[in-house]
Automatic annotation (TrEMBL):
The organism of origin for this protein: Candidatus Litorirhabdus singularis
UniProt keyword Cytoplasm present: no
Parts of the chain that traverse the membrane: 12-32, 52-74, 86-103, 109-129, 150-172, 178-198
Alphabetical UniProt keywords: Membrane, Transmembrane, Transmembrane helix
Protein's UniProt name: Intracellular septation protein A
């Protein structure tokens, strides 16, 4: 049994990175195809402005998912479960849906998909860090860190709630203007902040509890 457990831990990084790299490669291919087909980006007006910011948000999201999972499997050791192998596929499906919905006509549904990506990522990271804390090999990181409480997830939940509110408002109103641009800029700022936290994480500085990296769980 111990041999099986050790083998699972040893192979997990290879399996996760292989699966995720294929999913993200497909997402980038779809992203590029969608970009080439979006003639409205080269025109003036709200639609073009919204389109460029939406493209930036989508690209940052794809890059962040990749960096987040790579940092996880390279930094920690844990006994994998079925959820660990399913999460990349769920996130990938949501990414494909977001790419398909890109454009001003479906911004409401697109924001709801973005909120779902945040929520799934938060849940996946929470489960991984809980299991990683139990592994003695990770004591170097968790030994001086208290366990997280629900308050550590408030900022994460607020981001998800705001994205749902923006998506629902756009879906019900059917209009894409200044409100949609404000929502996209908020999403861009949230993702940019997450990239800053991941950078801190790579510098071996345990980041404070936030949306995608509540490492003290």
């Amino acid at each position: 049994m111990q041999q099986t457990t050790d083998r699972a831990r040893e192979l997990l990084p290879t399996v996760v990175i292989t699966v995720l790299s294929m999913i993200q490669a497909l997402a980038l291919e779809l992203y590029w195809t969608r970009f080439r087909e979006s003639d409205y980006l080269w025109q003036s007006g709200w639609e073009a402005a919204l389109g460029w910011v939406q493209l930036a948000v989508m690209l940052l999201g794809i890059l962040q998912i990749w960096l987040f999972y790579v940092s996880l499997v390279l930094r920690f050791s844990w006994m994998p479960t079925m959820e660990d192998t399913l999460a990349p596929f769920i996130i990938g499906l949501l990414e494909f849906a977001m790419i398909d919905l890109m454009g001003s006509d479906d911004l409401g549904a697109w924001f709801l998909m973005l909120a779902a990506v945040f929520a799934v990522s938060i849940g996946a990271s929470h489960l991984v860090f809980r299991r990683a804390r139990r592994d003695p090999l990770n004591d170097y990181f968790f030994s001086n860190m208290a366990a997280a409480t629900w308050r550590d997830y408030l900022s994460s939940l607020m981001v998800v709630a705001l994205l749902i509110m923006v998506g629902s408002g756009l879906w019900l109103s059917g209009h894409a203007g200044a409100f949609a641009l404000a929502g996209l800029l908020f999403a861009l700022a949230a993702l940019s902040y997450q990239l800053v936290l991941i950078h801190r994480y790579w510098l071996v500085m345990p980041p404070s509890a936030t949306s995608l990296d509540n490492v003290n769980e």
